[in-house]
């Protein structure tokens, strides 16, 4: 709890000092006797999340405390003549309990910090440093160019709110305005953090929970491929050998060091009715690549020794799991324009990894990624927003199809996600009905997120659901038993 106490000691004087002046409207008009202005905003949310499958007769619904259904955020925005300080805090009970238990992570900031940064203004140049959420690119939801911040996939009830899923990262961000519509940006991150995934509970992805069996049976398939004349004996004896992989728990690399620094530059301009952007980024792929080294050595040892001793189950010390956040150079371009009433957006990027020949089984191949989207009001005040994201692996013929032999083994050459959002408002925009559909085309995973929101001044009442379906082995369909209904009352100030 020492970190909570430290934060309290920092922010309580600010609260007391600001409140002692009453927050009169004159302050917002520049008449304050203080050398800075302070704006406090935030929100308080209350409401449960109910998981539909938990109410089946054979399954007991999870219990929750009243603190589990209440969370809050508060922001302090302090502006001086040539500087700005922004402090955004997550104040849920879960956040405080995790902070007290785990302390400061070497990679991620404590979850109590949503953002925390200082910005200085020097004529056309501004420099910002701290824990920052930075958006690059022009897509409505994250596209291939929005790669600065990792996302938090540990709770997919926020899947329709990518901004809420972003994790602030320590960085220095500078921007220089060349002219009114043209500017250049640069960013430097001293280390790296990938996407956050649940380590336990209902949201643990199959690619982690099933890693042991996938790798073990991949090794068995490789053994049969190497020694087809021994296929029968391998199938009969290998289950005992596979038991050696029950504790398959590869360690993630320490990415908190300067060795994992990231950097990039971006150029924005306007040409006629079109907005254009160019960017370069040097960083790491946000999802880890998992492979195994020493497979053939293990198989050779097993084949020889099991022939002499049928009870031999192999030597697991001969193999070593390997996790890599593949390093790459990204070169990208984006574009947006209003054309025939459609607000059109597009992004295209090339990623050049260290495996530029496609022969390194521990590193992702070079790949292309693109996104295209548009939104428009159609009829009766209905707004439709469509976006398609796709990645295309290059040098696919070099990839070994066995997941135990290649970190991309078993993956499709393309990965395509189609996101559709339909919105309709009623009663002078006090009632909003929305339907979001996310479809992963190659693996047939889907999620439907319908919602109804009633807005009265600063208060929102929202009823929503998340329905996961599709192939049970797909990225989205694997959570079919996590379909939920969520009721939320939100007050913003």
Can you put this structure into words, describing what you see?
The protein has eight helices and 21 strands. Strand 7 and strand 8 (182-189) form a beta hairpin. The protein has a domain at 195-254 and 289-324. The longest helix has 18 residues, at 2-19. The radius of gyration is 26 Å and the shape is globular. Helix 6 (211-226) packs across helix 8 (295-308). It has 493 residues and is α+β, with helices and mostly antiparallel strands. The protein has helices at 2-19, 25-28, 93-102, 162-165, 206-209, 211-226, 231-242, 295-308, and strands spanning 37-46, 49-51, 70-79, 83-90, 113-122, 125-132, 169-179, 182-189, 262-271, 274-284, 289-293, 320-324, 327-339, 342-353, 367-377, 382-393, 414-426, 431-440, 445-456, 459-470, 484-492. It has an 18-stranded antiparallel barrel. The chain has a two-stranded antiparallel ribbon with strand order 11-12.
Outline:
By secondary structure, the chain is an alpha+beta fold.
Comma- or semicolon-separated keywords:
493 residues, alpha+beta, 18-stranded antiparallel β-barrel, two-stranded antiparallel ribbon, globular
Helix-strand layout with pairing:
Blueprint: H1 2-19, H2 25-28, E1 37-46, E2 49-51, E3 70-79, E4 83-90, H3 93-102, E5 113-122, E6 125-132, H4 162-165, E7 169-179, E8 182-189, H5 206-209, H6 211-226, H7 231-242, E9 262-271, E10 274-284, E11 289-293, H8 295-308, E12 320-324, E13 327-339, E14 342-353, E15 367-377, E16 382-393, E17 414-426, E18 431-440, E19 445-456, E20 459-470, E21 484-492
Antiparallel strand pairs: 1-3, 1-21, 2-21, 3-4, 4-5, 5-6, 6-7, 7-8, 8-9, 9-10, 10-13, 11-12, 13-14, 14-15, 15-16, 16-17, 17-18, 18-19, 19-20, 20-21
Helix pairs in contact: 6-7, 6-8
